[in-house]
Amino acid sequence: MAKHDVELLAVGAGPSNLALAVALEELAPGLARNSLIIEREREVSWQRGMLFPDSLSNTSFLKDLVTLRNPRSKFSFLNYLHATGRLDHFVNLGSWVPYRTEVADYLRWSAEQLSLVELQRGVALQDVRPVWTDGVLDGWTATLSGGRTVRSKYLVLGAGRDARVPHELRGIAPDRVIHSTEYMRRIGTLRRDHPYRVTVIGSGQSAAELFYSVHSDLPACRPTMVMRSVGLQTYETSKFTNELYYPSYVDRFHAARPEARGQILAEMHHTNYAGVAPGMMETLYRRLYQDRLAGTDRIELVTMHDVTAARDEADEVVLELTDRCTGATRELRTDLVLLGTGFEPRMPETVRRLANAVGQREVEVTRDYRLVVDAPATAACYLHGVNEATHGIADSLLALLASRANDILQDVLTLRQNAQVPAAAVAAG
Length: 429
Ligand SMILES: Cc1cc2nc3c(=O)[nH]c(=O)nc-3n(C[C@H](O)[C@H](O)[C@H](O)COP(=O)(O)OP(=O)(O)OC[C@H]3O[C@@H](n4cnc5c(N)ncnc54)[C@H](O)[C@@H]3O)c2cc1C
Description:
- Helix content is 34%, strand content 21%.
- By secondary structure, it is of the alpha/beta class.
- The strands form three sheets. Strands 1, 2, 3, 4, 5, 6 and 15 form a seven-stranded mixed beta sheet that branches.
- The longest helix has 28 residues, at 401-428.
- The structure holds flavin-adenine dinucleotide.
């Protein structure tokens, strides 16, 4: 152990690694004392780019960092409400789903309650490399912002997914394109009363929220929403399909044949992606109705169109839209493009680089989220929230936080124990 600075390094203090930190403190205090989480932002929060005051989480407050694993935990959302004097109000509201800002505050509060795991804020992972000793992978060297390096035996990546920017828009001047993950930070830097022509791209919940919010954030703007689908649709929320978000469903999904996994993911797509919450649908439609009623024609919805090209021209962006029905193209001139295009489905770049560095062409994880390495290894790396293809639709969501943290921790504890046995046997021999 002496050659490692910490035993476990966790990257990103989002819900995934906070759930792991809680599990470490409750189940493995020794390892917790030798664990470090780094977070690139100065504050722990949640979905900073889309932290609108009216936005609700779509997940029960009982699917917090810990309750489904340990309902008696002091890190529960209910205990957060109690500790911050808001339990009566929340109970009286009669809602299963908290506001997004409330979830963010619960995560910040939980991070403050950690007493064994160290959390360093304002520290970003820049690069990570495997450490080999005599052909055995026995650690990781992480380079952090500022150039500092940290060596660890176990590495847990919980840094979220990469924002998806359609390739047609990658060459556009960055100050004219805002992905949803950056919306809150950047929208306030624009001239509030300027009559911007704004184009929102996408048709899911993020796009709908951007379209709604930009009306009030830039009150003089003229927003157009462009989507390739036939129109906005609500996401599906039946209690039957919601059973596929149970932690226990991960085993069934993981054991399924590839074609069955494909079918399940395709059928479940509308329960999470490309759909809008019913309340937001009603609000947006009323806004469109009022716009038509007033005859202002400020709002436009363009359905069944792809953005097939884009270019900067003088002080505007020219989007080429192709009608999926007719194949005809037309130009849409705009000042600002808002991307509600979600996240890259493939593995994040950091993960792909790391897998390549340990000689893996493909990124693959075990049932317990450990990166598969086809080489002798005593070190291990775990991946949170990027394993939908093998672990099911809930993988990137809050529903699995508590159980996944436990799965990862138990695997680490087993590896640690196994590592001690041969050492003891050798010493005894
Ligand atoms: C707008 C929005 C709303 C959502 N609402 C819901 C919902 O209601 N219910 C639900 O189940 N899911 C929801 N999700 C899905 C969401 O992905 C999960 O809820 C959850 O945030 C995943 O947690 P995570 O910790 O894996 O990743 P993240 O929440 O993305 O956290 C990753 C953390 O890592 C940090 N980080 C990134 N890179 C580095 C680096 N290089 N070094 C150090 N730190 C780094 C980030 O700053 C961040 O704090 C929503 C997603 C979005 C975008």
